[in-house]
Amino acid sequence: MNLSDIEIRYTPKEELASRISRFQQSLLEKNIDGALILQKADLFYFSGTCQNAHLFIPAHGEPVLIVRKSLKRAKEESALDNIITQHPKDMFKNIINSVGSKGRIGLEMDVLPAKIFLKYQSSLSPLEVVDASNIIRKTRMIKSLYEIDTLKETAKLNNLMFSEISNVLKEGITEVELASKLESVYRINGHQGAIRMRGFNQELFYGHLMSGWNLSYPSFFDGPTGGTGLNPSYPQSAGFKVIGRNEPVMVDYVGNLNGYMVDQARIFCIGSLPDKLVKAYDVALQIRDKVVEAAKPGVNGKDLFETAYNIAAENGFQDHFMGYEDRISFIAHGIGIELDELPVLAKNFDMVLQSGMVFAMEPKFIFPEEGAVGIEDTFVVTDDGLEQISYFDDSIHYF
User: What's phi and psi for 386, nearest 5 deg?
Assistant: First the structure.
């Protein structure tokens, strides 16, 4: 893969139509007359563009993309038929007229700032404004063949980046220097840079790359690892720590190509690792293999988490599983246009697997002052079980 091979990919018209049709069916089932889409990830999913726009999807009929800037780009990027520019007051008036004064309009209440929500609620009066975020997330949760093929292209980008590590990882290099070399491979080959997250105040820059004690350094991030980062304004991932011998180096990075992400992690070491960490890594592989064996449509994600935890406990690592103080309670998270999509395979969280779901599974063990080991790969649920999308040798890589 190189820059000359990369072409701009636009979401096909039939793909958008399928997504909108499934969403409209859910709106009808919830007795919602339409939804107004604003957030970039949702806008891209349903319209194929991230221009400054509103997308109104009625429960019946054709959607309309109302663009503020840039109309030219929106028409180039989106395959929707009805793309217009309109003053916000006229937009709200037309939505009200289209559904009737007693209609119900869905908004993305999980991501809209309160000030904007209150403004829209007032502007849409007398319509009842309801939360459509869960319907949106569940629609996006089931990936199409087009999306899965796009994810597989991203997996190639990830494999390219991981293959470069053996050429640049040297004793004495700092974490941030190693990160810069790997991130340049990403960017040169089409990585868009931004890692979208839906959760409030959750953010990520490529992923986590740390070594030794920094792998166990805590942070706000809702994941098993943290890292010092470079300063308190962004307190996670790679820091200025020098990478030494006989310590784990974890590269846990998110490839992103054509808007779709693949999450993957591997362990590297200059020298050798302590026996305890090697054993813990073997247990992580056991967990991965057992979950892959058990995960099929109809299986509940909370049971898969319990399976993973029990394997950790049977091997004496329960106090280090997915953290050591503020342990997280999931073993896998959905991924696609955003890093934190549905499904989530978590403790006491009902989530029945369905064909077309895509998630990143990451059994990891964190040891204070010593580091962390584990593995992460992205999988799609098929009718027959899990298919692994990401790929790279899953052994500990020694130098």
Answer: -90, 140
Please spell the DSSP secondary structure of 41-66, one letter per residue: HHHHHHHS--SEEEEEEESSS--EEE
Note the CATH number of domain 142-398. Answer: 3.90.230.10
State how far the Cα of 204 lies from the Cα of 261, in Å rounded to an integer: 12
Domain ranges of the chain: 3-140, 142-398
Please name every residue paired with 365 in a beta bridge, in sequence order, or none if there are none: 321, 373
Q: How does residue 134 score in pLDDT terms, banded at 50, 70 and 90?
A: very high
Tokens of 262: 């693949």
Mean pLDDT of all residues in 8-25: 96
**Which residues, other chains included, contact 164 with Cβ-Cβ below 8 Å and sequence gap of 6+?**
181, 182, 185
Write the pLDDT tens digit of every residue in 141-175.
999 999 999 999 999 999 999 999 999 999 999 99
- The torsion angles phi and psi of 241, rounded to 5 degrees, stand at -60, 135
Distance separating alpha carbons of residues 32 and 100, to the nearest angstrom: 12
Residues 6+ away with beta carbon under 8 Å from 347? 302, 305, 306, 309, 329, 330
> Which residues neighbour 334 within 8 Å (Cβ) at sequence distance 6 or greater?
141, 340, 341, 342, 343, 344, 357, 358, 359, 360
Dihedral over alpha carbons 149, 150, 156, 161 (to 10 degrees): -160
Sequence-distant (6+) residues with CB within 8 A of 167 are: none
Give the whole-number percent of the chain exceeding pLDDT 90. 95
What is the pTM for the complete model shown?
0.96
Top CATH class of 3-140 equals: alpha beta
- Tell me, what's the pLDDT at 388? 98
DSSP 178-222: HHHHHHHHHHHTT---B----STT---BSEEEEEGGGGG---SSS
